[in-house]
Amino acid sequence: MGLGFAEEHPHMQTVPYKTLSDGTELLADIYTPGRGDSFRGIADLDTTPVVLFFHAGGLTAFSRKFVNPSVIQAALSRDWTLVSVDYRMLPQASAEDMLDDVQDAYRFATDNLPGILNNSSWARGKDMARTGRRIIVAGASAGKSSHV
């Protein structure tokens, strides 16, 4: 399966998941299942699995948009939500910075995503996310070097 840049999607919204000390926002693209005949209902957005996706680029290139459209389709066809996130990259950021971004993206998925997906269930959504939602952490290769 090759990599590619995601195209605009009718059920995608972009939100900040983290603000750095210099005011820079790290963004997440949230792809939610359509409301077609196969979708089980908006209440299910509170507990349906979330794929938290980290893009490829050798830790030095690309963005949250660098996700194969087939990955998006695979998640949405199962009525899962896909969240593709930006993270700080080398050489401007350290490995510790990147790990902090991964942890903050995960916290965003558990603490804030329920309110974004279904504002009417914000209060109960946070608890459900912690106890009833599966978070699948995935990504494409961060690159590897053939010479060390």
Please describe the structure with a list of short key phrases separated by commas or semicolons.
alpha/beta, Rossmann fold, 148 residues, 5-stranded mixed beta sheet
Number of helices, counting only DSSP H or I runs of 4 residues or more: 4
- The total domain count is 1
Strand percentage, roughly? 15-25%
Give the structural class. Answer: alpha/beta
CATH superfamily: Alpha/Beta hydrolase fold, catalytic domain
What is the name of the CATH topology? Rossmann fold
The end-to-end span amounts to 26 Å
The main sheet orders its strands as 1-2-4-3-5
Mean pLDDT, all residues:
78
Q: Percent range for helical residues?
A: 25-40%
N-to-C order of helices and strands: EEEHEHHHE
* CATH architecture classification: 3-Layer(aba) Sandwich
* CATH class term: Alpha Beta
Task: Let me know the largest β-sheet.
Answer: 5 strands, mixed
What low-confidence regions span 5 or more consecutive residues with pLDDT below 50?
A: 120-126, 143-148
Q: How many beta strands in the DSSP annotation? A: 5
Dominant shape: globular
What secondary-structure arrangement, pairings included, does this model have?
Layout: E1 12-19, E2 25-31, E3 50-54, H1 69-77, E4 81-85, H2 95-111, H3 113-117, H4 122-132, E5 135-139
Parallel strand pairs: 3-4, 3-5
Antiparallel strand pairs: 1-2, 2-4
